[in-house]
Write a structure and sequence with these properties.
This protein is of the alpha/beta class. Helix 5 packs parallel to helix 6 and helix 7 packs across helix 9. The protein contains nine helices and nine strands. It has a six-stranded mixed sheet with strand order 5-6-7-3-8-9, with helices on both faces. Strands 2-1-4 form a three-stranded antiparallel sheet, with helices on one face. The longest helix has 19 residues. Adenosine-5'-diphosphate (ADP) binds next to strand 1, strand 2 and helix 1.
Length: 260
Amino acid sequence: MQNILELKNIGYSYHSLHGETKALENISFEVCEGEFVAIVGPSGCGKSTLLSIIAGLLNPEQGTILFNNPDGSLNYPKIGYMLQRDHLFEWRSVYRNVTLGLELHHMLTPERLAVVDRLLVEYGLDGFRDKRPDELSGGMKQRAALIRTLALEPQLLLLDEPFSALDYQTRLMVSADICRLIRAAGKTMIIITHDLSEAISLADKIIILSGRPAVVKTEMPIKLTLKDDSPLAARNAPEFQLLFNRLWEDLTHENEAEQP
Ligand code: ADP
Ligand code: MG
């Protein structure tokens, strides 16, 4: 499979009056087209910073990012960003929320709106277009947020702990659901999560970051025998517990190293 993204020796520090906070050091990894990559690491280690750099919101101080688009061009790909909260606006209907991205980008064309219509039907939200976000369940809100993101037809989806505002059971269902939809749409995804089981059940590859400044500690390919089923079924794969234990060990060593 072709690499669509290559990070080479990325480094980044925040500078303030109180001095320098080194967030990332020497981060290198690759992402293939259609791949799901999960990034895990101790809280505050630099995960969101890394995602902002990939999104082009921050410029790396060291290193390079290479994009290799499916059409062979090296331009910045179109990126969809989903955050912890769904960020739907209460004063807009569901329909006016899912078309907000298009509106902001002056892309309210019949073709794009047809994509939105198709996704609303496919994701079971067609009957809710005139409702307010408050009238939707947590899972439906995340689906609406996903439609808003996909309407812009991004090539790469970046998700920063997108399910952490949901309670545990909802989260299991919604994360499996959203990731199934993203796979079906054939997108490439980088997801930050602090839930190790979620990472193992969703990702093709897990990047484990160390405590700050984050370096890539381990890159763990995930091949589960039950992968082709749903992410929920993947949790029953015989290798699941073994992978969980390895990840847990890597991460707890990190957290111990962080103590003064
Ligand atoms: P994570 O997402 O892994 O929790 P972040 O990437 O948000 O971590 O932050 C990494 C480190 O950089 C943290 O110590 C945080 O306090 C610091 N940091 C994040 N944003 C800023 C900023 N805008 N200015 C200064 N320091 C920041
Ligand atoms: Mg973060």
